[in-house]
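Self-study notes.
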Amino acid sequence: MEKETESDYKKYFNPQEYVTQFIGIDKTDEENSDDAKEVTLLSSLLTDPKHKGVKEETLLTLKKEKKGEILLMAIAREKNKTLLPFLIAACWESEINFSKYLPFFVLLVLDDDYLVSLEAITVIEEMPGPFEKQHLAQAIEKIKEGKKSITSEKQVLLNDLLDTLNAFAQEIN
C-alpha cells in the first residue's frame, strides 16, 4: 500500500469535491494569509505545553465560531509528526461534527504512527453523522484494504473501526 502524502490530505480541501471553500487565497499568498496565521496560532495553542491553560477555551472557541476547517488545515499542514496526535485529538475534544470529512480521517487511520491512527479512530467513532453512503462504502473498503499491510497491534483497532463503520452504514439503510 502506498503511503499517503500531504498532497493526498489537501485534496479534501478541493472545493469542487468537498464542502470546504477558501476564497481569495492563491499559492503566492498562502503562507501570509489569515488562514495560515490562524493555523499557526491554533497549532501552537493546542500543542505547546506553555498554552496548556487555554486549551479548553481554545476548543470551545473553535466549536462556537465553527472553525473546524482551520483545525483540519492545521492537521494537513503539520510537519512535526509528534504534534499530529494532539491536533487530531482536538477534533473529538472540541465536539465539532467532522462527519463530512470521514475520508480525511480514514487516511489518518492508515498512517504508520499508532497514536495518529488511534486519535483518528476516536474522531470517527465520535462522529454523529449524517454520512454520505459513498463515503462510508469507500471508508470500509479502504480499511479492509489497509488491514492487509498493517501491524498486528493495529489489527484490533481496525476491526473495531470496521464494526463502527458497518453500524453507521446500517443506520443509513
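Second protein, same conventions, sequence then structure:
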Amino acid sequence: MCIRDSYKIFGQKFSDQMFLKNTEFLKHIKCVEAIQGCIDASPGELMEILDIIFKWGNFRMSDSSNTKLVGAFFDFYQKLLTFLIDQEYQMAEFEIVVLLGTLCDKTGQNIKIMAEKAR
C-alpha cells in the first residue's frame, strides 16, 4: 500500500497515525477501532478499500509483537469477516492471500489467547 493512497482514502491526519512507528501501538489500536466502526457506519465505502485494510493489517501485525494491537486486529477481522459473510461477499484472491498469510503467521504465537483468536 502506498502512503499516498491512504492519504486520499483516510485523510492525512488519520493516515499519518496509521504509519507511525511500531512503538505507537495505542494510536494504531485507535485506527483499527475507527476502521471497525466503518463496518456499521459506512460499509459500502469500507468494502471498496478492503485490499488496503488487509495490506495495512498485515504490515502492522508483522511489524509489531504487541498483544493488544494484535488482539484488536483479530477482533476487527472477526467482525469484518462476519459482516462479509452476511453480505455474501466473495473475496478476491489477493485479499485471501494477504489475510490468510497474516492469520497463519500469528497462529504460531506462544501466547495462548492470541493463538486461539487467530484460529
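Instructor comment on the second fold: The chain has eight helices and no strands.
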